[in-house]
Amino acid sequence: MPTIMRKPPLLNLLLNIFNKPARALLCLLLGLLPAVTAQAAVAEVRGLPTLAPVVNQVTPAVVNVSVITPAPMEDNPLFRDPFFRRFFNLPDRPQRKEQATGSGVIVDAARGYILTNNHVIKDAEEVIVTLKDRRQFPAKLVGTDPGTDIAVLQIDAPGLSALRIGDSDALQVGDYVLAIGNPFGIGQTVTSGIVSALGRSGLSVEGYEDFIQTDASINPGNSGGALVNLRGELIGINTAIIGPSGGNVGIGFAVPSAMAGAVLAQIARYGEVRRGRLGMEMADVPPEVQSKLRLPSLDGALISNVEKESPAARAGLRTGDVVIALNGRPVRSSAELRARLGLTPVGDEVEFSVARASGPQRIRARIAPPQASSHSETQVVVQLPGLRVVEIERGSPLAQRLRGGGLVVAAVDADSRALQAGFRPGDIIYAVNRRRVQTLAELQGLLRSAERGYAISLLRGDFNLTIILR
Fold it and tell me: Among residues 260, 152, 139, which one has the least CA distance to residue 210?
C-alpha cells in the first residue's frame, strides 16, 4: 500500500490559496527559512520572521559622525598676490567652513573608542558624534591610517554600547549581512544583503586592500558604518561604493574587521600604525607558474623579487616562491598578503607556507624597521608644515633600492597638516604627480607648481602608497 505524505495544515492552506508560480516561490522560501533561522538571529513575531532583535542589539553602537572642515573660498586672482593680501591684512588662504556627515562604530565602550573611515574625518577641524539616543559629544582623533582608510575617534560619554568584533576571516560568499549607517545624513538606516565576494582590491592607490563586497545598500554617508553578521558581530567597516552617480547599485565594499581591529590595536598603543619591511616584491600567480608548481589554483602570491641582505633574504625566501599561506591562514592574492603584512607590527615573526619547485617549505621571518638614510641633515618642507625630510645619499643601498633616490621623512610634528594628511616617520617620498624627486629642491618645486593639488607617491615598508592633497 503506498505511503501517503500529508502536508502540515497551514502549508496545505497556503498552497491552495496561491496559483502555481506563487506556490513554487513559497515552497522555495519555506525551504530556505530553516537555513536562515539556523543562524539564530531571525526571530518570529506574530508568526513572521524578523531581524528586529539583532537590529535592536547592534544599532545603539552605530553613531553619526559630523565633521567641520575648512573649504577654500572662491578663487580670485587678487588672492594670489601677496602684496594685496598683506595690504588688506588677509590670511594666506581665505577659508570658510563646510560640514559633512558619515558614520562610525563604537567598539570599546569603556574607553569610548569609535572606528570610522579616514576619509570621513580627513582635514577635520571639529568632529561631533551623535548617538542613537540623540546625545552629542565632541570627539578626539586618536589616530588615522590612510593606507587602510581607518581612523579611531574617542568620546567621553557614559552608558555607551559597543559592538563585538567578529571574525571576518570566517566569512563566506553567500553569508547574510546587515549594513548600518547614516546615508545622505537622513538618519540611522539598516539595509540587508549577502557577502558578494571576498578579497577585492584595486579600488584605490593606497595599497592595503582586502575588501568585503556586499549587495547590502551602501550610499554616501554610510562610510564608517557597520557591516554585521546575523549574530550581531562587527565583520566590516563600510568604506566605498561603486555607482554611476555615487549611489547604491548593489556593489559596496567594507574593510574586514580583522584589518580594522589590527589598525585599532596599533593606534590605541602607538597613536599610529607602525609598518616594517621584509624587502621583497609580490605579484599575483600567473598560469604558467601554477602549472610549473602544480598548484591547485591561482590562489597565492608570487615573490617576484627579493632584495639582497634583506630580512626576507636572510630568512630564506627566494624569487619565484609562491606564498600560499601566512601564519596558517590561506593567501588568496598578492594584495591580500600585502595588506596582512602591512598590519604586522615591527619585530613580530611571521610564518610563510611556500610552494617551491623542490617542494613545500615553511619559512619564518621577522618584520624589520623601515630602512633609514645615512644622511643626518633634516630639512623642512615649506609647503607641508610639520614635515621634515632627509635627502637619500646617492649610491647608498637605499638609493639603489629606489633605482635613483628620494627623501626619507625624518619627523612629523604632532597636530600638523602633514600628520593629518597621513605622513609618518620612515616614509620614503619618491614622486609628486608621477614625476620622480630626489632632492628637496625638486620636491618643493613640484609642490609649488601644482595648482590643483598633488599626489605624493611614497614607500612605506615594502608597500607603495599615494597621499593626495588639495
Answer: 260
